[in-house]
Sequence to fold (322 residues):
Amino acid sequence: MRQAGRYMAEYRALRAKHSLLELCRTPELSLEVTMQPLRALEVDAAILFADILLPLEPMGAPFSFEKGEGPVIHQPVRTRAQVDALRVVDPHEGLGYVLDAVRLIRRELDGKTPLIGFAGAPFTLASYLIEGGRSQHYALTKKMMYGEPETWHVLMQVLSETTARYLVAQVEAGAQALQLFDSWIGQLSPHDYAHYVLPHVQKILRAAEATGVPVIHFGTGTATLLGLQKQAGGTVMGVDWRCSFAHAQAQVGDQIALQGNLDPILLLGPRALLLSRAQAVLDDARGLPGHIFNLGHGILPETPVENVQALAAFVHSASERA
Fold:
C-alpha cells in the first residue's frame, strides 16, 4: 500500500520545504519521494507518489490540503449544473506532470524494480467532490445517489472516463502494474454497489486490463462486496484486515490473486506480535492462486520505520523458507 509518507524522516524533511501538492506536481520531487521507501525498506515494487485527487482540479474542481483537515474541495459539487460543468480530462494535458514523473521513475529504477501506478475509483472521488472533503457518514454523497440518480450517473461517467484514460496513460508512460483505490466503497451495500457503482468501475478496469499489465482492485470494508468487485474486474483483489483470505477466495474464485491483508495498526504494536501475525497472513495465503503480501490499508504517520523494515525483511525470509 502507500509506502512513502509522514512516518519517514526523509519525507517529513521534504514536506517542511514543499506542500503536498508541490511534491505531486513536481516530477523530480515525486521521483525522490517514490524512491525514499525503496532505499529504506526491503520492498519488491515502487509505488508512484501522487494523490488520488489530482484529476479533480483539471476536471474543474480545485482543492487544497488544509492542516488538520486533509483535502478540502473549494466548491463542492452538489447540483446538476455543477456536474455538467465538470470536464473529462486528457491526462497528457491536465496531468502531464504525473506522466513525466512516471518516466523519470522508470529511468531511475533502470529495470530493477517494477513501478505501480494508481488512481482513485469513482465512488471515492465522488465522495470527496460532494462532501467537500472527508466524511464520516457520506450523507450528502448518498443523498445525491438516492435522490438524483441521473445526476449521480452523469458524475460517475465523467469520473470513470477520466480515470480510465489516466490509468492507460500511466502504462503508456511506463507503469508496469496498476491499482485502483476505492478507499470508501465499504460504505455501500451490495445492492447499492451493483446499481450505482459497478458499471462505472467495470469500464475503468476493462480499459486498464486491456493494457496487458496486472491490475489490482482495492477497497476497504469490502467483505460483502468482493463478488461484485470481481464482476467489475481486476486481475488481483485487495483484501483488508477485516476479511479472511478464505472468505475472499470463496467470493472471487480460484482465478484471482489476492493482496493483503495485515492490519497496519500492528506496526505500532510489539515486534513479536507483528511478526507472528505476518506469519499468520502468509500461512493463510498458502494455496491461493497468487498472493501479494501487503497491509490492509496505508501506513499510519506514527509508525516506527524500524517496524516496517523488520516486517519487510521477515516476509522475504519467511517466503524463502516456504
